[in-house]
Amino acid sequence: MSYPYQLKNFEEYQQAWQHSVTDPEGFWADVADHFYWRRKWDKVLEWNFKEPDVKWFTGAKLNITENCLDRHLGTLGNQPAIIWEPNDPEERHRILTYRELYNKVCQFANVLKNNGVKKGDRVCIYMGMIPELAIAVLACARVGAIHSVVFGGFSAQSIADRIQDAQASLVITCDGAFRGGKDIPLKSVIDDALMACPSVKKVIVCTRTRTPVSMLKGRDVWWEDEIKQVETMGNPPAPAEEMDAEDTLFILYTSGSTGKPKGVVHTCGGYMVYANYTFINTFQYKPRQVYFCTADIGWITGHSYIVYGPLSAGATTVLFEGIPTYPDAGRFWDIVDKFRVNVLYTAPTAIRSLMGFGLGPVNHKDLSSLTTLGTVGEPINEEAWHWYKDQIGKGKAPITDTWWQTETGGIMIAPLAGITKEKPGYATLPLPGIQPILVDENGNEIEGNGVNGNLCIKFPWPGMLRTTYGDHERCRTTYFATYENLYFTGDGCLRDEDGYYRITGRVDDVLNVSGHRIGTAEVENAINMHAGVVESAVVGYPHDIKGQGIYAFVITEKKHHDLELTKKDIIQTVSRIIGPIAKPDKIQFVSGLPKTRSGKIMRRILRKIAEGELDNLGDTSTLLDPAVVEEIKQGRL
Ligand code: WT7
């Protein structure tokens, strides 16, 4: 594969960016021309941010899997598509060539059809990081089913909420998943979730851990048995379903400032073009390089930069089942060494945690294959940036700090590795096609450099969300109503004297814990479900490794009870309701919360207290009960 639209130097970047602004339709049509379409578009872009209504490549027909698989078979059939590294380093790794991956996706597409899955049906996928997860995702795309992947760390309740919202008819899961020393009983969690999900008619269970599972007659079938059946049928072909460019490809749930996660909807054509374009340009991927993204496919990073971006580019993508610290903190470096990884894409939280183990796990690992490093998910502090640069990249691999969101589908602001300038802590410059703008509280544009504001985007890009599943009004109010004619990211941002962007963090009630997005309202709802809890308020505070930690202020009923035990019970409740990722790090029992006279909790004050900024709480005189602030300050953890 060659990438005619891969930018090669700073001048080309500048020209491309200019072109994308003066003639967006021409710019994206040139890129889209390099894909395989069953039918080309009538119009490149139709849009308004008012409703919003955004359509890219209208009238075009395609199937993304023909771009990720079929079109590579002639030239890359024997090239590794997926290199899978198991949790246990003693277990053998697996390599799937493009031909093998194609065959497996076709087989499983037929399994889905045999189980009644049709175009437009919603399929929930809850699996660990094994090749079958990528196969399941691609097989859904092949038959035109809409996948909704749920991260393995979510609870039964969270899965049930997502399945009900999407009205999924089929679930694909595993008996269990290996992660570090743990064996997570995925099927058992699904069984709990499905008690509240009448829409689900079938469950396909893939064997991984051999954890005992209960298989419900008439509902649950084994992946392996279903594959055998397709083989008995003589492995019939699995023609890809013809999709409209604007048909939904997938739903991915993400947290916001309300209690209920929303289903971000991405469509086939624009998402494909954008995931591919940003992959090739940000990482400057070269044919036959080995690319390793450490994210989980349960998050958008895994969708765009383990599966769709790399595979549509004919790349070799490493899929790792385990965690960075198992069996020891040298695991990433062992994998880089073992497969001669060229491009490594990981999260600041992982870097900070590995930094804490010193250089022992890094020394004597051959990292000389690395040409490019990437980070994503949260702001990276300078110390971690330099450690990554010096100790991992040995000072010679460029770092691309990529800012984007579940909603954006792909990377938005980032250095093009080695081509545009990098700056520690900065996502730097927008990719071609992206028009960032900073606004003040009233939505007025903040022009010039050396300024701070709320980050918005003023023109559509192909990878942007189209709606939130089943509730378009929610999409409008969340992203397009705060500021007229702008997409609002929810992030605060600095544009420095050179015009480089630095994301400073969320300006809404959304936390970023270890790169995972968690709504404070969601955690509060979960805490409030615990018997004896009257009310709670959750805020973030700076955490050395996780970036942000979760600090909960909780009012309980006046009873004689063991408060330490109550804390544990609350943590257990949150784990049950949302999942272990949302467990509060600190719980402070209080007798009241700082509220305005109208009853609104003053989070600003709680945030300051959690951050330890006790002298700088601002005006507290308008509070209903100013005395409560003093009590909370005294009891701070
Ligand atoms: C939020 C999106 C899409 C990647 C995975 C997270 C924060 C993301 C950066 C970065 C500073 C970042 C933002 C954003 N974020 N990347 N490079 N520098 N902050 O996706 O769960 O949708 O979260 O993550 O706050 O809004 P997500």
From TrEMBL:
Tell me where in this chain the AMP-dependent synthetase/ligase domain is found. Answer: 75-460
Write down the InterPro entries for this protein, in alphabetical order.
Ac_CoA_lig (IPR011904), ACAS_N (IPR032387), AMP-bd_C (IPR025110), AMP-bd_C_sf (IPR045851), AMP-binding_CS (IPR020845), AMP-dep_synth/lig_dom (IPR000873), ANL_N_sf (IPR042099)
What EC number(s) would the UniProt record show?
Answer: 6.2.1.1
What Pfam families does the record point to?
ACAS_N (PF16177), AMP-binding (PF00501), AMP-binding_C (PF13193)
Q: What is the lineage of its organism?
A: Bacteria, Pseudomonadati, Bacteroidota, Chitinophagia, Chitinophagales
PROSITE patterns linked: AMP_BINDING (PS00455)
The UniProt similarity line reads: Belongs to the ATP-dependent AMP-binding enzyme family.
Entry keyword set:
Acetylation, ATP-binding, Ligase, Nucleotide-binding
Q: Where are the transmembrane segments?
A: none
* GO BP term, example: acetyl-CoA biosynthetic process from acetate
**Gene that encodes the chain:** acsA
Domain AMP-binding enzyme C-terminal, which positions?
A: 522-600
The entry lists its GO molecular-function terms as: acetate-CoA ligase activity; AMP binding; ATP binding
Name the enzyme group at the top EC level: ligase
Name the record gives this protein: Acetate--CoA ligase
